[in-house]
């Protein structure tokens, strides 16, 4: 069974966020760094639907998990 590969920009689109490179960089710059003691989905800037998507994808190791991991790393780095 093939596991789909989702682009980082596709995750932003899935979250209902602008998904062009400049918008992604601006979002990460605005919201970084997320403290290490805060789960990604518990960060204050997500809507409830976005937080649920992020949490479920990681917990279930689902199709979007790799892209969510990438987002998590990007948001942990200092801006």
3D structure, described in words:
- The structure is a single chain.
- This protein is mainly α.
- It has a single domain (8-76), classed as Uncharacterised protein PF10982, DUF2789 (Arc Repressor Mutant, subunit A, Orthogonal Bundle).
- The protein contains 4 helices and no strands.
- It has helices at 8-14, 21-31, 48-59, 65-76.
- It is globular.
Number of helices: 4
CATH architecture: Orthogonal Bundle
CATH topology: Arc Repressor Mutant, subunit A
Helix content: 40-55%
Topology:
Blueprint: H1 8-14, H2 21-31, H3 48-59, H4 65-76
Helix pairs in contact: 3-4
Features:
79 residues; mainly alpha; Arc Repressor Mutant, subunit A; 4 helices; 53% helix; 0% strand; globular
Would you summarize the structure shown here?
The protein is mainly alpha-helical. It is built from four helices and no strands.
């Amino acid at each position: 069974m093939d596991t789909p590969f989702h682009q980082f920009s596709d995750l932003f689109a899935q979250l209902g966020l602008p998904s062009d490179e400049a918008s992604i960089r601006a979002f990460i710059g605005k919201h970084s760094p997320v403290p290490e003691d805060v789960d990604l989905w518990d960060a204050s800037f997500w809507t409830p639907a976005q937080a649920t998507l992020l949490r479920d994808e990681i917990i279930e190791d689902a199709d979007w998990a790799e892209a969510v991991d990438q987002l998590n790393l990007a948001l942990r780095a200092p801006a």
